[in-house]
Design brief:
This protein has 755 residues and is of the alpha/beta class. It contains 17 helices and 42 strands. It is flat. It starts with a strand and ends in a 19-residue tail after the last helix.
């Protein structure tokens, strides 16, 4: 593919700004099922307008339907897909495998792009998606240039990568923090951005997980033949114009323009980072401040008579926005420069390099000398990005149709395909038959606001009759109204699902752990199966003491560079044929013919995703721990090859971003743990091991006492991530297996609603 600059469009204005400043494509959301639910997003009419405009100018529009859907939302999905099909969008970006299945079956003309929410981070993940009909994959943001190039070279898919914008602390799609602690799911577009919060570690309070913004700048020139994606569907048209212009010029010239970079930072910017594009990078978190900072233009020289003295490196005008990094504040302290002074003289503008002062607002906090001063808003920059926007209604997707018009002495008929209308009226002979033909053509060229245009018009008037223009216009209107009604009435059914429901006999119990030694001191008799997470040191001898028929081996959800491939091969050769995967890439890593179940990190919230996973080759599917009891009960009634996690130290974050103090070069990568707390004194455990950071709540996720009314074929109890002694496990199992209530636990969304 050609290198594509892909810009965000949270609104129609932003889309036009993106195209004006050089975007090859935009991505946007409708007002349902968008992972940026708080953006303005697009109405059907706006989507129709922007796709018509884009295609007229050889541009593309991708629609993000990239959230997880519960069962009762599937009918609304069909309506959204129908809108996308009628508007001729170029592709759909999806996370939910059930949504992908629906599109593939019912709307095969719509291209499938795999969202970054799928956390695809190696070649096997991309290959698995290609087999399911995806034409493009949006890779995990955490990948290096070498990893990106390998997937691009070998996958046979179009590759899309993020090059600029806000970053999530967790791998996208693997963040459960917002969902399980507040009921607002990042996987459903309602994230509360827990990663931006303030946390206490020991006596210090910091923003431990607040990421800087990604900015690859001129390093995007290393990314040839990819789609280069800018984050920012919640940003305004000014930001979209500036960031698109910045990267368009880099791609066209090979150089970054410092002036445009400064403009962009004044509109919106946290501190910038390349993330892990060039390899492991510790400089990714801004622990002191959150939110927009601006462009640094100097330092505070002091405060005299309520005025801040400084010498800016850039021109500052009256009413520009000034921000300061002040100790003890989470966000920069900002104010409008309503009064500027050169010496004692009031001025409209301060030139770069000119010593000056600005009047501070009342009750300004103490400003230490040397405090960084930022230009956070500039009147000049706000007016620097004009763009053209077409007249409303000028662009519209129209379906080409053929119309046959018949005139006889009893009336006139107009027919398109199987749709026709007739007006019964006595027609007389025309004085000039050619004028009648011209009048018919003129009438049917007037498509106005309809979704059609007459590509072919056949006029049948053998008796050379006359029809007045008013009658011709009337029959045209009736035909188009009927065609429009029939077009709107199209509502495809959901694709059939071939699921298996067996009579419920008893619940089978499954135990999962990442510490195989824990199993040596446990009675495994109550358990149908034992699942063990493998690592780079795993060998067949580790599991020799276990009953072979009970053992299932699990791939970790993150397996960078497919480093476990040799271990997997060795274990399969030793006869281990039952496996569990928690990422779509697991299906690509494991050979065909194995017994493969799925973990809760490969989310299932509807029957379409259930069916999709079984069609891929899963033998048993685990429900998402984000889901509600009400929705899970619907899925349980659909298939008995399903598994419910009832006890788990659920990872709230799974991250490639390290919060250790030491540098990577001297790191042992050995396990290290911290206890932290948020501002409400909710406590969490942070675990760092082998360049992966996992954040857990201090208490476990548990729903064993809430299962009344559910006939669950398989329940699972997990002892992963946290260190457990055999004695602790035995005590917990006694309560959990009996459905008792624990002293300390949380139940996530299971017994509440789910946003």
């Amino acid at each position: 593919m050609q290198t594509e600059l892909l810009s965000p469009a949270g609104s129609l204005e932003a889309a036009y700004a993106a195209f004006y400043y050089g975007a090859d494509a935009v991505y946007l959301g409708l007002r349902a099922f968008s992972a940026r639910a708080d953006a303005v997003n697009f109405s059907p009419e706006e989507l129709d307008e922007i796709t018509a405009y884009a295609h007229t100018h050889n541009k593309k529009v991708y629609v993000a339907l990239n959230t997880l859907l519960q069962e009762n939302e599937l009918p609304l999905l069909m309506k959204q897909l129908d809108i996308c099909a009628k508007c001729n969008v170029d592709a759909l970006i999806v996370q939910d495998l059930g949504v992908a299945r629906v599109i593939r079956h019912s709307y095969p003309q719509l291209a499938l792009h795999a969202s970054t929410q799928m956390a695809v981070h190696h070649l096997s993940g991309a290959s698995a998606l290609k087999k399911r009909g995806f034409s493009r994959v949006v890779l995990a943001r955490e990948l290096t240039l070498n990893e990106i190039n390998e997937i691009k070279t070998k996958s046979g898919l179009e590759i899309e990568v993020f090059i600029h914008g806000a970053l999530c602390y967790s791998y996208s799609g693997l963040c459960a923090f917002s969902s399980l602690t507040t009921g607002r799911s990042a996987n459903r577009g309602k994230c509360v951005y827990a990663c931006r919060g303030l946390y206490r570690q020991g006596t210090e309070k910091k923003h431990l997980f607040s990421m800087k913004d990604l900015a690859l700048e001129n390093q995007v020139c290393h990314l040839k033949g990819l789609s280069l994606k800018i984050e920012g569907r919640k940003k305004n048209a000014l930001y979209v114009a500036a960031v698109t212009d910045y990267y368009r010029r880099i791609l066209d010239t090979g150089k970054a323009d410092a002036r445009l970079s400064d403009n962009l930072k004044q509109i919106f910017a946290r501190p910038w980072t390349k993330l892990h594009f060039n390899g492991k990078n510790k400089n990714v978190i801004d622990s002191e401040f959150i939110s927009h900072r601006g462009l640094k233009i100097g330092e505070a020289l002091g405060v005299i008579d309520g005025k801040l003295l400084f010498c800016p490196t850039k021109t500052v005008e009256r009413y520009d926005g000034i921000q300061l990094d002040l100790p003890g504040f989470e966000k920069p302290f900002g104010f409008s420069a309503e009064s500027l002074f050169a010496g004692h003289k009031s001025v409209f503008q301060i030139a770069a390099g000119q010593k000056a002062s600005v009047l501070l607002p009342p009750k300004t906090p103490h400003i230490p000398k040397g405090t960084a001063v930022y230009l956070a808003s500039s009147s000049r920059v706000k007016s620097a990005y004009p763009y053209d926007k077409p007249k409303s209604g000028l662009y519209k997707n129209r379906t080409p149709i053929t119309v046959d018009v018949y005139l006889d002495k009893t009336g006139i008929s107009a027919i398109s395909g199987e749709t026709g209308v007739t007006e019964s009226v006595a027609l007389s002979t025309a004085q000039n038959a050619e004028k009648t033909t011209g009048a018919v053509k003129s009438a049917f060229q007037k498509t106005h606001e309809t979704a059609f245009f007459v590509q072919t018009l056949n006029i049948h008037n053998p008796a050379a009759l006359f029809a007045p223009a008013s009658l011709l216009n009337q029959i045209r209107r009736k035909l188009f109204e009927k065609l429009s009604a029939e077009n709107k009435a199209v509502s495809l059914p959901l694709p059939p699902v071939h699921l298996k429901k067996s009579p419920f006999v008893e619940t089978k119990k499954i135990l999962k752990t990442d510490d195989v030694t824990l199993l040596k001191e446990l009675d495994l008799t109550p358990f149908f199966e034992v699942i063990i997470v493998i690592n780079k040191n795993s060998s067949p001898a580790d599991f020799a003491f276990l009953p072979s028929e009970k053992v299932r081996l699990a791939l970790p959800v993150i397996n960078r560079n497919e480093t476990l491939k040799p271990v997997i091969s060795k274990l399969i050769e030793a006869g281990f044929s039952k496996w569990q995967v928690g990422n779509i890439g697991g299906f690509g890593l494991l050979p065909a013919g194995l017994d493969i179940s799925t973990d809760d990190t490969l989310p299932v919230l509807n029957t379409q995703s259930l069916a999709e996973l079984f069609e891929i080759g899963a033998t048993r599917v685990a429900f998402s721990v984000e889901d509600t009891k009400e929705n899970i009960s619907k899925l349980l009634n659909s298939d008995s090859r399903t598994e419910l996690v009832i006890y788990q130290d659920t990872p709230l974050f799974i991250s490639a971003d390290c919060i250790r103090e030491n540098e990577c070069a001297v790191c042992t990568r050995a396990r290290q743990e911290w206890e932290i707390a948020d501002v409400k004194n909710n406590k969490y455990k942070v675990i760092s091991e082998n360049c992966l950071t996992t954040v857990l709540k201090n208490e476990p996720y548990y729903i064993g006492h809430l299962l009344n009314g559910l006939n669950v074929p398989f329940i699972r109890i997990d002892f992963c991530h946290r260190h457990y002694s055999s004695a602790e496990v035995r005590a917990l199992l006694k309560t959990v297996l009996s459905g008792g209530k624990l002293k300390r636990f949380y139940s996530g969304n299971f017994d509440r609603s789910f946003a």
